[in-house]
Design brief:
Layout: H1 13-33, E1 40-44, H2 59-73, E2 79-85, H3 89-95, E3 102-106, H4 109-117, E4 126-131, H5 141-150, E5 154-161, H6 163-173, H7 197-204, H8 208-218, H9 223-238, E6 244-252, E7 257-266, H10 269-289, H11 300-307, H12 311-317, E8 323-324, H13 325-336, H14 342-351, E9 357-362, E10 381-386
Parallel strand pairs: 1-2, 1-4, 2-3, 4-5
Antiparallel strand pairs: 5-7, 6-7, 8-10, 9-10
Helix pairs in contact: 1-2, 1-10, 8-9, 10-13
The structure holds S-adenosylmethionine.
Length: 396
C-alpha cells in the first residue's frame, strides 16, 4: 500500500479548495448545532500532520480553530474535535499542542469506527465526520450507512471521494483494454495490491460501477461521462441514508476533468443550504481568481451550460403549485446542484415578485406594521407560486 507523492510537502490548489469549504462551513455549523445544548464532536478521520511542510494549516488546525472559537464564546459547551491519524500522530499532537478540546487518536480509522459504532457511545451527540483519505480503499460505503443507523442526535459527513482514481483502479481490476487518460494517474492515490472488484463494490455501495466501465470500454461513454455517471450513482445510494446529498467536482485546469469529488451528506436543510452556498462560492471564487492558475473548475462556456436556463425559468419549472420557499430551495438544489446559491434563487424571485411570482408571507406585516418583504424562511413562512398567465402582460 503506497502513495507515490509527498502530500504534505506543500498545500496544493485542490487541497486549498476543500479546506476553504471546510473552514467556511464549520463556523456557522458549530454556531447552529451547539444551540441544541447537546455534545458536539468533529471527527477528522484521516487527519494528517495538522500543518503542511510549507507552513499552511491542514484540516486539523482549521477544525481546532473553530472549536477554540466556539468554546471561547460559550465556555460551558461540550464541543470537541477528534483526530484519527495512523502515521503522523506525533507531528499532529505537536501542531495541536495549544489547541483546547482536541484529542489525537493514533491508529486506523477502520479500528476507530468500531468505537463510533459501539453501543457505549452517547447517541445524544451531534457528529460531523470529515473523511479525507489518500485513495478510496478506506471508504467502505457500508460504514457510512451503519454510522447513520446508530441514530446520533445529528450526523453530517464531508467525504473526499477520488472518483477518477476509483474508475482508473476499476479499469485495471476489470482488465479493460480501453486506455484510461493519463491525467487519471494521481500521485496521492493510495494503491493496494490486494484490491479486488468485490472490494470496489463495497466502496461504491454496489456493482453499478462495473456496468459504467463496461459502457466506457464499449465506447458509449467517454471517461468524463463515466465519472459523472458514477458520482450520480454514488450520491443516489447515499441518499438512501441521508436526506440531502450535494457534491462539488474539483478539477485540474490542464485537463478540464474532475480530480475528485467532495461529497456532503446531511439530514438538515440548513446544512444543505449552507454547504451548497459554500461549494458554489468556492468554485466561483476560483473561477474568477485563478483563471491563469493551475486549478480549474469550469470555463465560461461550461459554466453557462451548467447554469443553463435563467434562474427564473428554473424556479418556474418547480412551481406547478404554490410551495414553501424552503422546500422550493431544496428542490432546486436537488435538481441543479451547486449551480446557484440560495441567495441567487431568492433574489430572482424577489425581483419578479408580483409580476412573475406570487409571494405570500406569514406574518404578512413587520413588527412596525409595514408589509413584510422578507425572504428569510427561518423567520417568516413564505409560500411562492406563479402569477397566472393572464397577468403576465405586466411583465417586462
Ligand atoms: C489526504 S491526507 C489527509 C490530509 C488532511 N485532511 C489535511 O487537510 O491536512 C490522508 C492522511 O490519512 C492518513 N491515513 C491513511 N490511511 C489511514 C488509516 N487507515 N487510518 C488513519 N489514518 C490514515 C495518512 O497518513 C495521511 O496523513
Amino acid at each position: 500500500m503506497a502513495v507515490r507523492g509527498n502530500f504534505f510537502e506543500e498545500k496544493r490548489d485542490w487541497s486549498k479548495l476543500k479546506d476553504q469549504i471546510l473552514d467556511h462551513y464549520l463556523g456557522p455549523y458549530l454556531a447552529k448545532i451547539t444551540t441544541s445544548g447537546r455534545p458536539t464532536r468533529i471527527a477528522d478521520c484521516f487527519a494528517g500532520k495538522g500543518r503542511f511542510d510549507d507552513g499552511q494549516p491542514g484540516s486539523p488546525l482549521i477544525i481546532a480553530k473553530h472549536v477554540a472559537a466556539i468554546i471561547a464564546r460559550t465556555p460551558a459547551l461540550d464541543a470537541k474535535a477528534i483526530f484519527i491519524e495512523q502515521k503522523y500522530a506525533a507531528e499532529l499532537r505537536a501542531n495541536l499542542a495549544s489547541a483546547p478540546n482536541c484529542e489525537v487518536i493514533e491508529g486506523e480509522y477502520e479500528q476507530c469506527l468500531h468505537w463510533f459504532l459501539s453501543s457505549r457511545l452517547d447517541r445524544g451527540r451531534s457528529y460531523f465526520f470529515y473523511v479525507d483519505p489518500y485513495g478510496v480503499k478506506s471508504l467502505d460505503f457500508d460504514h457510512f450507512a451503519r454510522l447513520k443507523e446508530v441514530g446520533f442526535q445529528s450526523l453530517e459527513m464531508l467525504i473526499n471521494f477520488n472518483t477518477t482514481g476509483f474508475l482508473r483502479e476499476g479499469c485495471r481490476l476489470l482488465k479493460l483494454a480501453r486506455a484510461v487518460p493519463d491525467w487519471a494517474d494521481d500521485l496521492d492515490y493510495e494503491t493496494d495490491g490486494k484490491n479486488t472488484s468485490a472490494r470496489m463494490d463495497e466502496v461504491a455501495g454496489g456493482d453499478y460501477w462495473q456496468t459504467i466501465l463496461a459502457d466506457f470500454q464499449a465506447g458509449t461513454l467517454d471517461f468524463h461521462q463515466a465519472e459523472e455517471k458514477f458520482i450520480a450513482g454514488y450520491t443516489d445510494r447515499l441518499r438512501n441514508h441521508f436526506t440531502y446529498v450535494v457534491n462539488i467536482p474539483i478539477k485540474d485546469r490542464s485537463r478540464h476533468l474532475p480530480k475528485y469529488r467532495l461529497v456532503f451528506a446531511t439530514d438538515y436543510h440548513d446544512g444543505l443550504f449552507l454547504m451548497a452556498d459554500e461549494m458554489h462560492a468556492a468554485w466561483r471564487k476560483l473561477l474568477d481568481q485563478e483563471r491563469g492558475g493551475q486549478l480549474y473548475l469550469f470555463d465560461a462556456t461550461e459554466l453557462e451550460a451548467l447554469r443553463g436556463a435563467t434562474i427564473q425559468d428554473k424556479v418556474i419549472a418547480e412551481l406547478e403549485a404554490p410551495i414553501d420557499l424552503r422546500d422550493l430551495l431544496i428542490r432546486l438544489i436537488r435538481k441543479h446542484g451547486i449551480a446557484h446559491t440560495t441567495g441567487e434563487y431568492k433574489k430572482a424571485i424577489k425581483e419578479r415578485e408580483g409580476t412573475m411570482f406570487s409571494v405570500a408571507r406569514d406574518p404578512a406585516k413587520t413588527p412596525t406594521g409595514r408589509p413584510s418583504l422578507s425572504m428569510d424562511h427561518n423567520k417568516v413562512r413564505i409560500i411562492v407560486g406563479t402569477i397566472p398567465q393572464a397577468r403576465l402582460p405586466l411583465q417586462q
